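Tutorial handout. Part one gives the primary structure; part two gives the three-dimensional structure as tokens.
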Amino acid sequence: MVDRRTVLRAGLGAGAVAAVGGLAGCGVFGPSDGTHPPATVRAATLDKRRLLVIEMAGGSDGLSMAVPYADSRYRDLRRATAIAAEKVHRLDGDLGLHPALRQLAAQGVSVVPGVGTAKPDLSHFEMLHRWQAGDPEGAVRPDTGFLGRLCDHLGDPGAPAVGVALGAGSSPALACAHVTTLSVDHDMGGLFPAFEDENIRDAWPAAQRAMAHPDRADTAPFAMARSGTAAALRFSDVAAKLTPAADGYPDSDLGVQLRLAARLLADDQHGLRIVHVPMGADFDTHSRHPTRYGALMTDLDAALAALRTDLAARGIADRVLIAAYSEFGRRVPDNGSDGLDHGAAGTALLLGPTNPGVFGDLPSLRNLDPDDNLRATVDMSEFYATLAESWFGIPANEVLPGRPRPIPGVVAA
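Part two.
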């Protein structure tokens, strides 16, 4: 007997692994001593490059992640939530990283402030859609996601998965037309169900494969379900042979996600190129922002530091670009509840084979929009063009509307 919870958790075709895109045919890092910057890692050749995207949904406050500590206007507008200049990790004469991002500062990071769109929307759902679809103004409404279009350009239609999202449910960002992309439960419980009875352990995969077998008599919905299950099973065969997980990650959802991401990215036999990590944390800090955001940055710092150490130990630090973004930033002034309301332009991060520093123009704290939000100085399409063109060598206009230009100088080629 198998209880319902075990069946649902182990069900490959029912949610632990879900097809979200098109199916084929349908140097060691360590803490810096503060006197010598870390050595820059040079990017591998184009064919070996991978991308890890961390989605900080909820609206991460860019002015707390990269603090404009030298601008007195920042402290004037944020009486309750400003971070003292002496506490930040200074990037240059204008910006400094949040105090909790100690390891990130030591290892080196590329910071892109003022990322957004000329026509922002204060809705989480709308702005998440725009970021996931690569649709800055919300006017194109493509059927595929930005990461999915990258996968279509990069991948082999016969690969078990070109892109994988580590979260519950399908990821619109990976929706594609020609290759296979999947969503995987990040604790891998669905891929390797822990049945105690050996007869059930043997019967379970056989039953899954029987359900995935094509049947010409199927109606369209059942045929699609079978195809999705078949894709999940193909990927589970790959996942079963991944190299062991490394130690040193924090015991958090993000730590678990990034530990698995490193194992996936280290596999160079089966065509995986992109991993998408929806960070399961609450960045919507309308109240108690200083405390809540500090905890979020502590987790982010520990998980990213462990990941980069792991990638270096596996010999693939030069192959993996890490990009982190949020759908929008927070409003500039405090809201009276030690918090910050929905804003517009935010701050994005790039780590790995990049040149550390600040890229792009700082948004002005003296020229806010009518809602007291930052005006974007780097369009999201320019940030995405950097991933497509500078990192993967894909012309930006083939995966994004218009002809956006990459941010120059970020990738350490």
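Part three, for discussion. The longest strand covers residues 110-116. Confidence is low (pLDDT under 50) at residues 1-16, 23-36.
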